[in-house]
Amino acid sequence: MLTTVQFTCSDCAQTIEVNDEMRETILETGCPVCTTAAAEDDFSTA
């Protein structure tokens, strides 16, 4: 089962629900909206 977490961008404040795979991608490539680098602190359990 996939874990779902909330990602909130520290720059544009966009909040999206993501699964583990999407979380890893965001950590590697940054926010999908504004491309600001993401950190572990930007994720929280839904």
From TrEMBL:
Pfam families: DUF7560. It comes from the Archaea. InterPro entries: DUF7560. This is Zinc ribbon domain-containing protein. It comes from Halorubrum aidingense JCM 13560.
